[in-house]
């Protein structure tokens, strides 16, 4: 009887210990969120990785969604969103279930949530994504556009657009025959710079009203940026003697060649008008 009693007590203690141990192990093996960066800032076009790290995930799955939408972007490593820029990045046996977004755009900014459903409650990790409206690294570029063949007495308009790799250039200059050009009202030359921080483009416009034969030549545009990049390009300007005749006659005749050339001349005068308008704008500004 005593032996039976003792055996019973031992068994009871073992059972108690086992249940305690089980409860303890269950508790300690409950999914748990590990600390991650909750605010992430990237530039447009970059790839961003939103991190979610979970301990003791067990058989549970991790979902990502973007607030306020309910539908998950990814669940486990499966993508539900149509947008193929999203990818759930997970390496077996690792704790991270990251969300990767390629070529981030401004509309991607917002709050993302990594969630794990447990039988007790939903674990949620919110991560705020900020997107800076600037591209971090692009191809440096410089180009001149404008009136390559101005007429004597006419208007010449040159644009030099320079893009730095990281920032907009901080300096841009025009040269001709090795000499730097400056705005000079008496010479009818005006140089203006504009800078777009967002697109990283610096533009310098060079305008000559009343073009002379001496304005003929090679125009060099040079831009330098804070990173000491030097961008340089040139354009050969060929001043023509002018004397173009504007159409005065009727162009209703069915001579296709004639009418098409007439149209081109009309277009030239339209372009001239636009230039004139731009010049006025330029000088008034
Ligand atoms: C958080 O971000 C900073 C800078 O982006 C980085 O240096 C740091 O290692 C990150 N911390 C974690 C826990 O990922
Ligand atoms: C998840 O992202 C973090 C932070 O960027 C990184 O350290 C970790 O290696 C990533 N994990 C995986 C599985 O890619
Ligand atoms: C250069 O910049 C001007 C003014 O910002 C713009 O009108 C023009 O389209 C640009 N040209 C090129 C080739 O990007
Ligand atoms: C500047 O333009 C005005 C009017 O178009 C003209 O009279 C003048 O001679 C020009 N100056 C030079 C230096 O070309
Ligand atoms: C400008 O220079 C080009 C050669 O570079 C030449 O063919 C053209 O006749 C010149 N125009 C004038 C008005 O001197
Ligand atoms: C300049 O234009 C004239 C005709 O207007 C042409 O004969 C000459 O070849 C051009 N020169 C250059 C360098 O383009």
Automatic annotation (TrEMBL):
<keyword id="KW-0732">Signal</keyword>
<dbReference type="InterPro" id="IPR007110">
    <property type="entry name" value="Ig-like_dom"/>
</dbReference>
<feature type="domain" description="Ig-like">
    <location>
        <begin position="152"/>
        <end position="238"/>
    </location>
</feature>
<dbReference type="InterPro" id="IPR003598">
    <property type="entry name" value="Ig_sub2"/>
</dbReference>
<dbReference type="InterPro" id="IPR003599">
    <property type="entry name" value="Ig_sub"/>
</dbReference>
<feature type="signal peptide">
    <location>
        <begin position="1"/>
        <end position="23"/>
    </location>
</feature>
<keyword id="KW-0472">Membrane</keyword>
<dbReference type="InterPro" id="IPR013783">
    <property type="entry name" value="Ig-like_fold"/>
</dbReference>
<keyword id="KW-1133">Transmembrane helix</keyword>
<dbReference type="InterPro" id="IPR013106">
    <property type="entry name" value="Ig_V-set"/>
</dbReference>
<feature type="domain" description="Ig-like">
    <location>
        <begin position="31"/>
        <end position="128"/>
    </location>
</feature>
<dbReference type="GO" id="GO:0050808">
    <property type="term" value="P:synapse organization"/>
</dbReference>
<dbReference type="GO" id="GO:0032589">
    <property type="term" value="C:neuron projection membrane"/>
</dbReference>
<dbReference type="Pfam" id="PF13927">
    <property type="entry name" value="Ig_3"/>
</dbReference>
<dbReference type="InterPro" id="IPR037448">
    <property type="entry name" value="Zig-8"/>
</dbReference>
<dbReference type="InterPro" id="IPR036179">
    <property type="entry name" value="Ig-like_dom_sf"/>
</dbReference>
<keyword id="KW-0812">Transmembrane</keyword>
<dbReference type="Pfam" id="PF07686">
    <property type="entry name" value="V-set"/>
</dbReference>
<protein>
    <recommendedName>
        <fullName>Ig-like domain-containing protein</fullName>
    </recommendedName>
</protein>
<feature type="transmembrane region" description="Helical">
    <location>
        <begin position="266"/>
        <end position="284"/>
    </location>
</feature>
